[in-house]
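Hi everyone, sorry if this is the wrong subforum. Our group has a chain we'd like a structural model of before ordering constructs, and none of us has done structure prediction before. Sequence below.
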Amino acid sequence: MIAGSAVASGWAGVVVYGAVRDSAALGGLDLGVKALGTIPRKSGKAGEGSVDTPVTFGGVTFRPGRILHADDDGIVLLPAD
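Answer:
Right subforum, don't worry. Here is the predicted structure as tokens:
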């Protein structure tokens, strides 16, 4: 459902610092998905979140406005122009 909302909003892709489920369904969407892995268990939802907030994981800080390119082999994060 979240991935479907991302497609409907015009997103090109998502980066998840965690696991995703329903990977076969995700593969059928016009959406790039990078995650640490897959899991069959449903996630808990707390209704929390924020927008335009930098997050750091994997030794990289993802900041609003940065340009992200990804392919099957990995991710490159570039500074904003």
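For your construct planning: The mean pLDDT is 90. Residues 2-8 form the longest helix (7 residues).
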